[in-house]
Amino acid sequence: MKRLILLLICCTALAPAKIYKGAEYRTKESYTYGRFEVRLKSAYRDGMLTSFFTYNDNYPATEWNEIDIEILGRYRDVVQFNPITPGQLNHVSHYRTSFDPSADFHEYGFEWTPDYVAWFVDGQEVHRQTGAHIAQLNLPQKIMMNIWPPVYYGWVGQWDENALPAFTYYDWVRYSSYTPDSGNVGTGNNFTVQWKDEFTAWDTARWQKATHTFNGNNCDFIPANVVFKDGMLILCLTKENAVGYTDNTGPFVKHARAEKEGVLIRFTEELDTASAQNPASYINAAYPVTAAAIQDDRQSVLLTLSNYHRDSVSNVVINNVKDLSGKNSSGVKNAVLIKPVPLTFPVKVNCGGPALNGYLPDQEWGPTVEYGRMDGANYSNMSTTTGPADPLLFRTEANGLVKYRFRVPNGMYSVTLLMAENFFTEQGKRNFTVSVEECLVIRKLDLIRDAGFRVQVQRTIAAVPVKDGILDIHFMAEIDNAVVNAIIVEKVIASVDQGMRPLPARPSLGQNYPNPFNGRTVIPVTAVNDEPLTLRVFDALGRMVHEQALGALTPGEHPIAWDARTGAGHAVATGLYLYTVEGRNFRSAKKMLLVR
Q: Is 325 part of a structural domain of the chain?
């Protein structure tokens, strides 16, 4: 569920106060078009989000206009972009970052013009939207930042008040006006810097602290939770009796699982390394803890126990583990272990639907399950698809998901995705990218363009190495929502040091070999997204001597042979030749020498 559900109508003064308190900081002035930038460090907490956006607060007197950057606290590698247009229509895209947004400061921003909205991460454009819906973003909007807990847990993750307080840190905000052909920053130097706020103090002439709430928001915004400290703006999410930039609460145990290699404990916040990795901080009388290793998320600890077997251990006592500040302690708490039932292979999931003919039912990800999706909704239809797989699998789908996850032993796996377009009948209406274990494997898949309406599409990633016990499949929407109908995960006998090679950002053309050549050569072509490609060869006078439709190649490298003959079968003469590969949005050329 996306921001269709957000910001509906501000509650009136008569509405009861909420027990959680968040923060919002907004400009007094509204802006039409421009480049909007921020440097921030987000909060890593399930059930809440950090934002930087523009919004037309003259709604409902005028149409809805909003442009979002949202960082959901349930993820460590996702940023969500969303222009919301009249009628509260969402156009969500997800971008997978190469970093944890909560671990350090990064720059985010977007350019808003009459023709496009483009989003940037650390100065690089990562997503762009054009079209009729962008033209509808034409109303003045205020710059806003907030931190809040939505009530929509399927979107942001399960809320846990024990994770409070949470803080987002903003280093600066910069606004540049849209000045085509006469600017000094941004794409084409089409923007002119107007101001930059370093947040040394509250600029009351420029900014307001919000004092409202809205439907779908589980907190009230209060001025006390907008804090300036150490040259930063800090937005706070707190309980009602502990507001402001203070933290007097120690870590709670979120859950604890008996894994094959040891006990994995997840806490509600980042931990002090010394206490978290001290074996004396964890007690089990029958199976002494011999080692404790804090994990990459800074909130989880993996315990090694003497003579451990996961069926034998039922609990661990937590003994004064401290939070990151080192000031607040967990106290002494008993953690009862979740006893998982490992998956058996092959794992087959009917995404969006019930158990079906050997396929497991779809479910949401959580600490008590071994597989599941994050975000998205389940849709069903009565369509009949064409293709080799069971057509009943394609009558349900997981739509709008961000991730599908599987808890598996470390090793090598193959992943097969089954998909079909059962809604749109025209190409260009849905487009999404897929990565598996941080490796890009499918780029800008358009099911209509690449297969057709109600035609089954199967993509198998043959060698997926898993080294952290969780196989992650990441769906990144480009246009509309990502969809998947079924997923199959199978074990592969291979080394985890082998595995996938990421796709390049676009198709590529390699140098032919051998070169020079006599009679036959091989031209390497790398495809990335089933885009139809065409190979052409030209002589030194620019005359085309050979044309070969390569079609929609599967992603990966393809050796294309040429026998130095024309399409009619005539041998071409000794000389220098230019060869090209072209697609819809791609063209590359190289030279080769034929010596007979």
A: yes
How confident is the model at residue 552, as a pLDDT?
Answer: 77
- What is the C-alpha separation between 436 and 532, in angstroms, rounded? 24
Find the CATH number of the domain harbouring 528. Answer: 2.60.40.1930
- Mapped onto helix, strand or coil, the DSSP state of residue 582 is strand
Alpha-carbon span 371 to 345, nearest angstrom: 13
Whether 488 and 534 map to the same domain: the answer is no
Rounded to 5°, angle at Cα 506 from 467 and 501: 25
Domain span including residue 170? 3-239
Both 442 and 538 in one domain: the answer is no
> Considering 213, 239, 265, which residue would you say is the last residue of a domain?
239
Check if 259 is active-site: no
Q: Which of 24, 29, 63, 70 is catalytic?
A: 70
Query: Residue 74 in contact with residue 142, Cβ under 8 Å?
Result: no
Q: Which of the residues 24, 37, 66, 259 is marked catalytic?
A: 66
CA distance 534 to 587: 10
70 in active site: yes
CB 430, CB 446: distance < 8 Å: yes
Q: What three-state secondary structure class fits 395?
A: helix
> Could you give the CA distance from residue 118 to residue 350 in angstroms, rounded to a whole number?
35
Domain of residue 284, CATH code: 2.60.40.1220
Name 386's bridge partners: 455
Q: Is the dihedral of CA 226, 227, 232, 235 positive or negative?
A: negative
Q: Based on the structure, what is the number of domains in the chain?
A: 4
Nearest to 238 by CA among 303, 164, 343: 164
List, in order, residues 6 or more apart from 363 with CB less than 8 Å away: 369, 371, 372, 373
User: Dihedral through CA 405, CA 494, CA 359, CA 309, nearest 10?
Assistant: -70
Q: Does residue 273 sit in helix, strand or coil?
A: helix
Residue at which a domain ends, from 275, 305, 336: 336
Report whether 113 contacts 135 (CB < 8 A).
Answer: no
- CA–centroid distance for 539 within its chain: 46
Block means of pLDDT (10 residues each) for the chain, length 596 residues? 41 70 98 99 98 97 97 97 96 94 98 98 94 97 98 96 98 98 95 98 98 96 98 98 97 96 97 97 95 97 95 95 96 96 97 97 98 96 92 97 97 95 95 91 90 94 91 96 98 68 72 85 81 89 90 75 85 92 86 90
Q: Is residue 342 part of a domain?
A: no
**In the prediction, which pLDDT does 596 show?**
80
